[in-house]
Amino acid sequence: MIRIGYAPGAYDLFHIGHLNLLRRAREHCEYLIAGVVADEVLIRHKGVAPVIPLAERLEIVRNVRFVDAAVPALTNDKVDIWKDLRFNVLFKGNDWQGTEKGNKLERDFAALGVEVVYFPYTLSTSSSALRRTLQNIDALAGHTSSGSDLERAA
Predict the structure, then answer these.
(1) Domains plus CATH for the chain?
(2) I need a surface site. Which of 14, 29, 101, 154 has the fewest CB within 10 A?
(3) CA distance to 9, 105, 118, 136, per residue, from 71 (Å)
């Protein structure tokens, strides 16, 4: 039986952690589907709007050589997604492992015969950290430009 993998993620501000996840996932399956979480789903479940729009994130992920297909994830319910895609291995970062959400995911998928495989979370880079850095740069730029305006007015 061919191993069809599913690697869900926002893939916003695409970085080395995303690439590592997709590379490792591809090493564990013959066909890899990346589920790119829709903007509305990110806002509803994480309270964060993506910086990069869904269509662009799909295009970026679709063009990663480890990915065979990139599809929008229009729900946060992985079992509903499985009903459409019928993957037999699900890949997640190990920040889920041992958590209530991760344990539920493992139980739900064990009942469907789907293996859950965790990969090390890339601590050095995350979309959240990149987003904070961008906000800090914006705040600094706003502070600097208003200071310059005040100096010019004087």
Answers:
(1) 4-144 (3.40.50.620)
(2) 154
(3) 11, 20, 21, 32
